[in-house]
Each structure stands twice: as C-alpha cells, then as structure tokens.
Amino acid sequence: MTTIPVAARTDSDISLDSEVSGSAAADMVSFLRRWYQYGGGSDSDIFVTFGVSARHYFRSVHALLQSGSDETISERERNSMMRVCRARVWLTDPQSPSHPSR
Fold first, then answer.
1. pLDDT along the chain (102 residues), means of 10
2. Is the pTM above the cut of 0.90?
3. How far apart are CA 91 and CA 85, in angstroms?
C-alpha cells in the first residue's frame, strides 16, 4: 500500500466507512469544531462520546464536511477542519511509515 503524505493527500484519499446523518452527524461536526484547533480531540474522548474509533470518526466527519451541508461553517474553517481529519486518518494508518507504532 502506498502512503500519501498528509500535505499531498486529497479529499478522494479518504472514504466514508458508513453513513452518518441527523443529530449524530451534527454532534460529530460540532465536536470537531470545538477541538480542531487543538488537533481534533483525544481518541478516548471520541470513543466515549461517539462509540467509534478515532479513525472512523475522522473519516466520517471528513465526508460530512466535504458535502458542505453545514452552511454555518466558513470555507476557511471547513478546510482547516478537513485538514485535521486527513492528518488524523493518516496517523491512524498502520501502513504509514511514520505511524507511531513503527
């Protein structure tokens, strides 16, 4: 598997594991909006709050942000939040040469 550095990743490099909609989607985006400036929140907080792995959470939120359905988020903020999602997905990729387990 080829690893793409975070800076070179595009939106198409992250696919959604499953559909997330309604209040759960809004809650996930709201959580990231509070925490993206600090790296997106801890893995344990994400698991306790949403019951999913950080990887699943960031892939899901990235897809939600990519859809552009939340008009209260500016384009600049949306891009920053999506950048955090891409970075966190990359960090949880065990095939990455710079993964913390290596």
1. 37 47 88 96 95 94 88 93 94 66 54
2. no
3. 10
